[in-house]
Amino acid sequence: MKALIAMSGGVDSSVAALLTKESGYDCIGCTMKLWDLPEEDAGAVKPSKTCCSLDDTEDARSVAYRLGMPFYAFNYKDEFMEKVICPFAESYEQGRTPNPCVECNRFLKFGKLYARAKELGCEKIVTGHYARIEQGPDGKYLLKKGLDPSKDQSYVLHCLTQEQLAHTLFPLGDYTKEQARRIAAEHGFVNANKPDSQDICFVPDGDYAKVVQRYGSGEGTRPGAFVDLQGDPIGIHKGLIHYTIGQRKGLGNTWGKPVFVCAIDAAANTVTLGDSEDLFETRVEVKDFNWIAGEAPKESIRCTAKLRYRQKETPATATVREDGRVILTFDEPQRAPTPGQYAVLYDGDIVLGGGTIETGKRHVDL
After folding, report:
1. Can you tell me the distance from the alpha carbon of 298 to that of 187, in angstroms, rounded to the nearest whole number?
2. Rounded to whole angstroms, how far apart are CA atoms 339 and 286?
3. Can you tell me the distance from the alpha carbon of 327 to that of 316, in angstroms, rounded to the nearest whole number?
4. Residue numbers annotated as active site
5. Are residues 226 and 286 in the same domain?
6. Could you tell me if 144 and 131 are in contact, meaning their C-beta atoms sit under 8 angstroms apart?
């Protein structure tokens, strides 16, 4: 069988390539060229904590050649701009807080790359994600957490379908990061001690607003009113793109006490401020939900849920409405459910699915 290995240049995808080759697959390595640092920033920022740089491509090529596998670099910059960067900017302009890594997985790694794998006659695509795939007794594929809880990446994979899971391998799902680095060092990989990528590749300096201004329409840059929970003006904000739910720092004004961003209204161009306790919500509405099993449950289910990548799962009840949206009712109020982020549901170590947070309200109509 043939496998196409997505190689970012990091240690994880390199070890995934090695393990796949050792398991008997005829392997092809590839890197997706997604983005170039803008010319005006090229001399000012060295994106050492992101993926997708020229050095990363060369590291991936080095490992592929060391393993004796052919290597290709695929140019998907136009698709990445259309499917990831522009929607990222638009989402911020609408007062939402997106997670572009999920969209990159959805449209590029398991969309474009999956299609390219089929063109190359590959039965499987392989990535270095820390997650597991198993086939259940009913024949359906299960997406499960990686065994290393500190590295589990199942949250950003909740968009996968049954077809994609059937043709995907996650060789690192049973390994820890320390084991992966040790394997890389034992095989002389140039990236054995390479730091993990931490930043979003197209935001190497962490300045989200600058990216939105560069690629957006300019809608979220207009100053507007800070308002209190009653809707009364209490100050002036510098543009919606500078704020996200739960934010306390960088508000630019002093109100004599700590205040937090509780809501963002793009239509009114207002940012609502309140106390910390005003951020907590019991019910959250989720749209565009992907059920890994391929179908939604017919009745309410008990589960655990995460509302952001690094959050600990918490118990909740999930109810599917007739329009497909999911209402999550948490046992305990959750801090700052943020529109644009993803709610992901679990049953133990099995990922049930996930979708985009639309609203977080104490009272959501069922």
Report:
1. 50
2. 9
3. 10
4. 104, 201
5. no
6. yes
